[in-house]
Amino acid sequence: MEKGDFLIFAAGIVTVMMIAIIANPQSVSRFAAPVPVATPVPAPVLTPLPDLTVITPTYKETTPPPEPADASLYRIFYSDNPLSYPRFLLPENMETFGGSDILRLDQEMVPFAFVEDTRGGLTQKFNIPYPLWALNISVTAKTNPQYGKFRMVLCDASDGTIINGVEILNRGTAYRNIQTSNTDFYMIISTTSIDRYRITFETPRSYYETYRPP
Fold first, then answer.
1. What is the number of domains present in the chain?
2. Helices and strands, counts by H and E, the chain
């Protein structure tokens, strides 16, 4: 076969193949390299995040119970039957009791009772639960201060024993520390030319809180 004839034959074959491809393109798909098909990826399922809202904790404020208030002062009056007491007269010599004790300034003193009047007499019986307590005495004499006189003794109600006493001439103040407790007492008081007196019963705060009656 000559070269010219071969080229004509080859051109004919190429022409036939082109026509076949155009007429049936799937016929050559098996000879072509497979085209990768993208596999669809399922959309991720989104799990909702927990609510991250900041919750501020609330605290219920509690008010501590108030401390018990100091009790009202107990007033001691004079007895209606002073002659029934084991002692009803003052001793003749009041100077044996000496001057006033030192007023306590190192701690708070709490008043819990008082006697107040213008005249003298014998008080009702009373009982003191505090191991340490004091008598804070004040005497006022404005009308005739030069003649003023106040005398007092504290007695054991069981036998009339004098526990302590004080004498104030003209006017002024006095202080008596007492270390006798849990017994019945009474007081013998005498006044001359005074306008008024007041005896305040006091005890240190620590004793008041510990031995205070319910």
1. 1
2. 2, 10
Q: Where are the beta strands (DSSP E) in the chain?
A: 74-75, 109-117, 121-122, 126-127, 133-140, 149-156, 162-169, 172-178, 184-192, 196-204
Domain that holds residue 204: 74-90+100-211
Those residues with Cβ within 8 angstroms of residue 176's Cβ, 6 or more apart along the chain or in another chain: 100, 101, 134, 135, 137, 154, 164, 166
Report which secondary-structure segment, H or E, holds 21.
helix 3-23
20 lies in some domain: no
Would residue 27 count as lying in a domain?
no
Cα gap 120→133, rounded to integer Å: 23
Q: What does the pLDDT read at residue 148?
A: 96
Q: Are 110 and 208 in contact (CB under 8 A)?
A: yes
User: Which distant-in-sequence residues (6+ apart) come within 8 Å of 122 by Cβ?
Assistant: 78, 79, 82, 85, 88, 186, 187, 188, 189
Report if residue 30 sits inside a domain.
no
Length of the chain: 214
CB atoms near residue 195 (< 10 Å): 15
Closest CA to 141 of 208, 198, 183, 85: 198
Give the Cα separation of 169 and 152 in Å (integer): 12
How do residues 168-202 score in pLDDT, each as one tens digit? 999 999 999 999 999 999 999 999 999 999 999 99
